[in-house]
Records
---
Amino acid sequence: MSATRVRDAERPSGTALRLLAHDVVRASVGEETSYADGLLTVGTRQATECFAHPALAAVRVSCASPGDSTRIIKVLDAVEPRCKGGEPAADGPPGTGVFPGLLGPAQPCGRGETHRLSGAAVLSAGFLPRAQEAVLQMSGEGAELSPLSATHNVVVEFEPAPDAPWEEVAEALRVGVLRLAVHLAQAAVTAPPDSVEELELPSTGSAGLPRVVAVTNIQTQGAFKDVLVYGRTMSGSLPTWIDPCELADGAVVSAQYGHPALKNPTFVHQNNPVVAALRASEDVELAGVVLCPEPVSEREKRLVSEHAARLCAALGVDGAIVTKEGGGNADGDVALKLDALEDLGILAVGLFAEMAGRDGTAPGLVVAPSRANALISTGNYDEVVRLEATDNALGGERLGIVDAAATDELDIPVAAIYGSLNPLGWNRLTCAAEL
Amino acid sequence: MLLCNLVSIAIRVGAPRIVPTHGIPFPTGDPELTPEEERRLRRRLLDRALEALGTAVDGPTVFDPAETTADADAAVDTPGSPESAASEVPSP
Amino acid sequence: MRIVHYVNQFFAGVGGEEAAGVAPAVREGAVGPGRALAAQLGSEHEIVATVYCGDDYAASRSSATEEVLELVRGFEPDLLVAGPAFTSGRYGLACARLAAAAAREGIRSVAAMHPDNPGLDEAEPAPVIESGRIGREMRQSIERLAGAIKTLARGEELHEGDGRIGRAPRRNRISETNGATRSVELLLARMAGDRERTEVPLPSFASVTPSAPLEDAASARIALLTEGALVPMGNPDRLESARATRWLRYQLDGLDELEEGAYQSVHGGFSTVAANADPHRLLPLDVARDLEREGRIGTLHHEYLVTAGNGTQVATARSFGVEWAAELRQAGVQAAILTAT
């Protein structure tokens, strides 16, 4: 037997992770957390306990569902409720093993069974330093601009403890949201799933289809503007390949609270849209994800980008889809990678939001690629949109970006709408002409 | 025609006749050289520029100053050949 | 609709290059290509007047656009149509600037030119319709322009399908599929061989047509140009160091050399120490005079043109190029050497 055939015979194949989805069709706050027939009840006391921490004086948990006359302001992160199924992890109560490094030890994840509440999200809302005010409209004019107007949102508002350092407040809130996400998913573990997805092991190219990798750039700018991988920062690192199943189990968690329209909340890392689109396509094979930090100096950007391209070449992929997080600064990270990939013979597509000015005539990209030219538009950042007045608001009583009550009718740039121009292609907003 | 250092940009924007220079801050000079050497460099660049101007081109073409047929050291008239070597670069 | 049509001196029937310096003037009704346009438009629309101007006048005088617009205003038109300018840079620039100025003051306008025309980007916010490359393609160009005018008459906006070129304003809409799904489709298209398709058009640099070679340098008038922002010490005319909106000219008559200390570079994009120590590093006057004395060139032009090429908007740089070309041609210059930093 030749060496190659021995390796092939021993290589594991097939399903890596089973994702069991439980649909949520209604959500409300109540005495005890439960899930039955699509109705999610969030137990107030149990939910609040997730946030027991000296840095937080109080939290308030409420629900905002699609169609509610509610606007959520100062939205921070969004997380899809998920927990592990099957046998409990060796060192932790049942359900842990997701969000490794933040909940429980940083051990490899993305295998076995994971339960998710589909159609639901846990949101944190309120003030944090360096956060940019984000607005989410649950119904009426303006709701269609954010994908989270279609989910049942469990909203956590918070009061920092007096004199608590903001970094600790942010961390307590972050961990609390993850705990609540696990707690809610656990309520559905015994229910029969509405659908099951079998996520396969990384492709080996045996199907003969072109292999495509998702190159996901993440923000790494320190406190309140970082994205954690297995609970740690990627600032200063070189790119790494990661199994998409690890993303499904929360290996990447957002600790970045700027850029409402151009951020990737944890929810979007859990449900990486580029990964989903590649999986759904019958014409390509998903070759995994390459995670890259977004440095802030030109020289560092070049180093990371060249390395990412070489890594993709070493993976033997035929194509790459490159995304970012953030504004014009991050355009450079995408542009450099697109050029570096194409120089190595890997066809590449980049996703960009456009900063085309209020009337749409300004040049849209801060840094454009020189040689690569296949770009997807996720919309014009500066276009002004109207949000109709709502009866209720969560996250605060007054807006900061315009001087208005949180429930007032608003004319604001789409840049302030949570998830509207999402750089991972989560949303459907675009400036592309209709074909 | 264009005397510049960032030749790739010149090609990208479609400049038809390009003579490369030693540095961005000194297109027709080089502070690393002695004044006499600099004057000779400047003469070589302009001789090449004239050759480039006299050459038919289809698209962005780089004319290396080292290949000028004019004698930069001589102060007397030296006819330049219109068929001087030019490296043709395909237009982007 | 009542339409005023703008054309250059050639299409107005006034003359060729020798008439490129004529000042703006008016003819009643449709003239030249305007007649073909009127025929295509039918009786519903009328070209009430034709305003024309010499290409050199339009390209080299900053007041030209306003002078032409003043004539246009007098007719209170429903629409101003400029061109088609094909690839003629001076004509295209004039059409673009006129259409843009009119649009900004509320006079609906449309220009027509080839996509490679340097004037294209200056037409915003007015729309531009694609025309052929040369006058021989007039018929198709006029047909397309007429179609676009009828679209405007119906109160509709012009799109790619109407032959609209240049940067159309970007407008948000909600697509059927999300960006991620479309990115996979785009990658598949690219893998199948389509290397042009994109949702975000990149700035493209229109091809530059090389001029014919200089036949006889020994009898030619040659000009020196620079974007190195070389100006008299003190920058008396206040050339900007970045995002320049102007260009200047300075005398070289009677000078064999640029005196050290008499000039400086105000360019904000590089260290000007070397250039300030010896201005010939930006503008090679000394060697140019040698070439003149030796008979290698006929005459060195008596002035040099200068701007600062630092963060210059591409459209601005293009229009400077068109203006410099007009300027130098009018002065009998046959070739120019541009130093760039």
Note: The helical segments of chain B are 7-12, 35-53.
---
Amino acid sequence: MQTKRTIFGNKGLPYLLLAPQLAITAVFFLWPAGQAVHQSFLREDAFGLSTTFVGLRNYRALMDNSEYLNALQVTVVFSIATVVLSLGLALILALAVDRMLRSAAAYTTLLIWPYAVAPAVAGILWWFIFNPSIGILPFVLEQTLGRDWNHNLSGQDAMILVVIAAVWKQISYNFLFFLAGLQSIPASLREAAAIDGAGPVKRFWTITLPLLSPTTFFLLVVNVVYTLFDTFAIIDATTGGGPAQATNILVYKVYDDGFVGLNLGSSAAQSVILMLIVMMLTFIQFRYVERKVTY
Amino acid sequence: MVENQRGLDIFAHVVLLLGVATVAFPVYIAFVASTHTSTAFVSGTIPLLPSTHAPASYGDVLAGGVAAQMSVPISLMLFNSMVMALLIAAGKIVISVLSAFAIVYFRFPFRVLGFWIIFITLMLPVEVRIVPTFAVIADLGLLNSYAGLTVPLMASATATFLFRQVFLTIPDELTEAARIDGAGPMKFFRDILLPLSQTNIAALFVILFIYGWNQYLWPLLITTDSGYYTIVAGIKRMADVVESEPLWNYIMAVTVLAMLPPVAVVIFMQRLFVKGLVDSEK
């Protein structure tokens, strides 16, 4: 691991400096994570009076549990829809701003502020707009398409609602990174291609998009993590996983089974599976960062 | 620009204006709703133009006691959110700067192990291990306290990595010169490292303030005493009861208040915000 040529020789001081960070990590991260792993091998009776060691049974039960498999499927649909839409829209906006000379800064300011809006608040905003009885969009849908919107009854409507809220919140982040990526592409490359007769569309596919691929890959990982975990608040503030489990994503189910259903063994097993997924994603992200550094 | 294409420029402007409008739309609707009286919603649709009721709506929610579900004054929630956001941001920075200093400027047994333990915190979002973490807080008697709201969120791998990056770019000659002049490690840290990382600290502070302000699940779980409610978690508590008695104008006023501070930070400190965001993701 990288360090300095000139260092200080104190023996005890570095431990003292690290102590606060390590103490918090141990008490609030490692210990609970260990508890989750431990808990996932146990089964508690309904009154919490006795626990028995059941090995991998909690995990095996999940694989046969139709609700869990449903949550898995819901998560995949939700993640793909959110990631594709937020990346696509952000890229279009970033490409447009990249063309601007004088107005670029103003547009940027007007596009990035939703980053500061809490996911829960974003959820509430769209929940209000889509409110079946007084919301503005259900009214418009009814008048123009004759479509009867009700996310309290229709699973499809509920999914659309949470995807829109999640995308709205994430566009600003993706936009900023895409714009930074676009601005780091040397203008000379595009000019050379233009002189060779490549039009804007061709330049986008053959020059801009390939050179943007490190940014896109990085954003892909970050966005998957976002849809898996940070969207908890959006779900909780809008649909609460319903109707009929239609928006019950994995991270919400951990909470729902643990705190509401009090099925601790199963909830812990789900926690462990999610932790493994995050570790994998973090690992991929860091492998990529290392590559970018040596590149 | 490579070539002048009037049509493409106009198209880009149209796309951007549409984007800006879509992004602003929900907030506009919320703001408009907050300027009406609660009777305006009985007719069946949301009004699209602001009314004159805004001072009353905001005054009422800030003072509290409008209805049963809004007995807690929003001004108190805003204060709690502010305390939480500032404590988390400051705590994270202090803890991370110290540990990055230890990792970069000292060589000691278990250094790499310490680094990895910090790295692990990056992998375990609080939502994932929420049940056991809640149990720890309950056992420690930290429910309904500022310590319980903030301390568990203070460990930060990203901030530690960021400061490690910053320190690695600081030339060794500075350290040598400081040592020749007889400066000990803490003096070097205070008089050289901290001033040199000022901008990074400020940029990170902006990001962490937003992070702290927007915390949702954690405050929702560990505060049952209304004196410790934060605004982002508080909205949900109000909206839950809403089906029986929709006080939309008040709920939307609270929503607008909840996003005002962090959005203001992004708009007015945009340079620091962008730097912080890009830095902390490296």
Note: Chain B touches chain A through 106 residues (CB under 8 Å).
